[in-house]
Specification:
single chain, 58 residues, mainly alpha, 3 helices, globular
Length: 58
């Protein structure tokens, strides 16, 4: 079962967009573009605070 989590490997700021993209199996670029075009800064900050970070196994 998939869980929505922030990415710890493919992140620019907090990994929210990459985590959403991984959850829906789409490109992180698409999700970043959607956040940028819609100006969803508040939603991004809320998700960054609420979503747990995916533990890295490096």
């Amino acid at each position: 079962m998939k869980k929505l989590m922030r990415s710890s490997t493919d992140k620019i700021l907090f990994g929210v967009c990459a985590g959403i993209a991984e959850f829906f199996s789409i490109s992180p670029f698409i999700v970043r573009l959607i956040f940028f075009v819609t100006g969803s800064v508040v939603i991004y900050i809320i998700l960054a605070a609420l979503l747990p970070e995916n533990p890295s196994l490096y």
